[in-house]
Amino acid sequence: MPHAPILVAVPADVRDFERYRWHASPDTYLNALTRVAAATPIIVPAIAEEIDIDLILDRVDGVLTTGSASNVHPALYGSEPDPTFEPYDTARDALTQRLIQASVARGIPLICICRGHQELNVAFGGTLATEIQEIAGRMDHRAITHDDQRERYATRHEVALSGDGPLAAIVGQSSIRVNSLHRQAIDRLGNGLAVEARAPDGTIEAVSVKGAQSFALGLQWHPEYWAESDAPSAAIFRAFGDACRRYRQSRG
């Protein structure tokens, strides 16, 4: 039986290329939405002050915030800008902070990946640490240097899941192997968030929104990359798609 049609908003990154400014999103996330979550993605341009966010959220059934080469601007969590935090994308920051907060308030299903996971923490008043591989006792979570993207995004370490959390319920396991590619991570956990997974070095790899009306998860790793072949990654995107369909049905 075909899935009911659903729309998922995906906030754009801003890129300057060949004398033009582009609003775009990596296709790995779009492919995971269409092929596994059975959703139609809608890329939202990062011009938050010029578009009607409520109008968009009135029409979509879910929101996905993606990873990116850019980082959340430190001013949003009370830190000073520094070259080690760069590059930035303040236009995306302005859009995602509003989308995240409004989605949770409305009960719209929300999945936040990599940069998105960090955006979720900041939206709830948390902070970020950068260059975590230089912190004593921490692993190196950065991507390896390789010409083959499949090697760069290969799963490389385990994460332990919270036994009573929604993420463990979705994947049906107490630990999974993931592909974390990051040099920033959650420092102080945002108010109202619960830890769903940790790496062996204690790094927070997944969170949920306490008391959320619907699916609301942040994942530091990249389930979108292997969503068509890795069972836990597929389970996450299917669960998100199912949550979006339930939300659509609930609003008639």
UniProtKB/TrEMBL annotation:
What Gene3D superfamilies is this protein classified in? 3.40.50.880
Q: Which GO terms describe its molecular function?
A: gamma-glutamyl-gamma-aminobutyrate hydrolase activity
Question: A GO biological process this protein is involved in?
Answer: polyamine catabolic process
Question: Which Enzyme Commission numbers does its entry carry?
Answer: 3.5.1.94
Q: Which UniProt keywords apply?
A: Hydrolase
Q: In which pathway does it act?
A: Amine and polyamine degradation; putrescine degradation; 4-aminobutanoate from putrescine: step 4/4
What's its catalytic activity?
Answer: 4-(gamma-L-glutamylamino)butanoate + H2O = 4-aminobutanoate + L-glutamate
Annotated PROSITE patterns: GATASE_TYPE_1
Tell me which domain of life the UniProt entry assigns to the organism this sequence originates from.
Bacteria
Top EC class of this enzyme: hydrolase
Q: Which CDD domains match?
A: GATase1_2
**By its UniProt entry, which Pfam families does this protein fall under?**
Peptidase_C26
GO cellular component terms? cytosol
Q: Which family does it belong to?
A: Belongs to the peptidase C26 family.
**What is the protein's known function?**
Involved in the breakdown of putrescine via hydrolysis of the gamma-glutamyl linkage of gamma-glutamyl-gamma-aminobutyrate.
Please state what the protein is called.
Answer: gamma-glutamyl-gamma-aminobutyrate hydrolase
- Give the organism the record lists: Jiella flava
